[in-house]
Amino acid sequence: MRTPNWQPPAMIPFFLNLSQEMLDSSKDQLINMKEAKGKPYLLSDNEIERSLKLYGEMNEDTSLFLEQCKRWLKLPLTASQRKEVFKIEAITKERHDVNQQILFLVRQYQTHTINKIMEMDPSELALDVLLGKIESPFF
Q: Which are the contacts of 95, defined by CB distance < 8 A and separation ≥ 6?
């Protein structure tokens, strides 16, 4: 685990902006992952691995963001700063939840990426399509 570099209150606006951008990015990715539902063959093993790593690491950092907020709230802050810290906390928790949804979907898609399908024996692939384990891209 990384050693935290705790930030002074002057960094609150930066972290608020960073937190919002990260949440927006995660929401966009969740939309993309939901669109892949039933079509995991649109994704490659590499995309799955990168998503697991990225969104997993982001969620590991959730506790650091929340601890930073906790530390700021122990300091004498202006009303505006205090409001921004509470907003960072809320955004961080929402981002964590969105990332959990992304990770859940990615794990579901992991076994039927284009790489996995290309490695399958044609008869095994046909059987999986007929049994409904893999949705056919032609229907």
A: 19, 22, 23, 26, 58, 62
User: Whose structure tokens read 């949804």?
Assistant: 101
Residues contacting 68, CB < 8 A, separation 6+: 4, 6, 7, 15
Q: Are 40 and 113 within 8 A, CB to CB? A: yes
Contact 65, 5 (CB under 8 A): no
In three-state secondary structure terms, 46 is helix
Helices marked H in 36-139:
45-60, 62-73, 79-109, 114-119, 122-130
Encode 94-105: b = buried (16+ Cβ within 10 Å), e = exposed. ebbebbebbbeb
* pLDDT tens-place string over residues 84-115: 999 999 999 999 999 999 999 999 999 888 88
CA dihedral 92, 97, 98, 103 (to 10 degrees): 120
Q: How many CB atoms lie within 10 A of CB 15?
A: 20
